[in-house]
Amino acid sequence: MDILLIAISVLLLLLGMAGCLLPVIPGPPISYLALLIISFTRFAHFSTDFLVIMAIIAAFVTVIDFFVPVWTTKKFGGSVYGMWGAGIGIFAGIFFLPPLGLIIGPLAGAIIGELIKGSDTGKAIIAGLGSFAGFLLGVGLKLIVSITITIYFVREVFGGA
Question: Do 32 and 17 meet the contact criterion of CB atoms below 8 Å apart?
């Protein structure tokens, strides 16, 4: 049974990493679920405090990820149109130009949104860069948490704590 739980956990870790890049999959919570599952095996011995802290961190980063692109778009002078454009661009990029679309989509979407609003081209490009910076920051934060969870997982299960 332990081997099955470890196999499921490894799949969840991989899905969690993918979720750090794909906005429709909550990466850190899925990675955390892997830790939770292996804590029920004989291979892992995490304290309750550790599991609670990791759950809070995974939830916090997931929630923050929704606000970071909005914040950076505003900081770079973008409007609601740019923010909506960036969000639409993420999804369009996933479907029409994967995986490069994850990078180009939010940038192009924010620029197009600002141009629709009537902003001049320079302001639209700067707002697009703000949205892109927010997207990258969010991905980076989620990756840090998911990689940290993966390190604890590997160390505990394969390191023989």
Answer: no
The C-alpha angle 122, 79, 140, rounded to 5 degrees, equals 85
Amino acid at 135: F
**AA letter at 69:** P
Name the amino acid, one letter, at 43. Answer: F
Domain range summary for the chain, segments of one domain joined by +: 2-158
| Alpha helices for the chain (secondary structure H) | 2-21, 27-38, 48-75, 80-96, 101-117, 121-158
Residues 122-160 pLDDT 10s:
999 998 888 888 888 989 999 999 999 999 999 998 875
Tokens 């989509």 belong to 105
Nearest-angstrom CA–CA distance, 155 and 161: 7
- 147 DSSP assignment: H
- The pTM of this model reads 0.80
The C-alpha atoms of residue 87 and residue 126 are separated, in whole angstroms, by 16
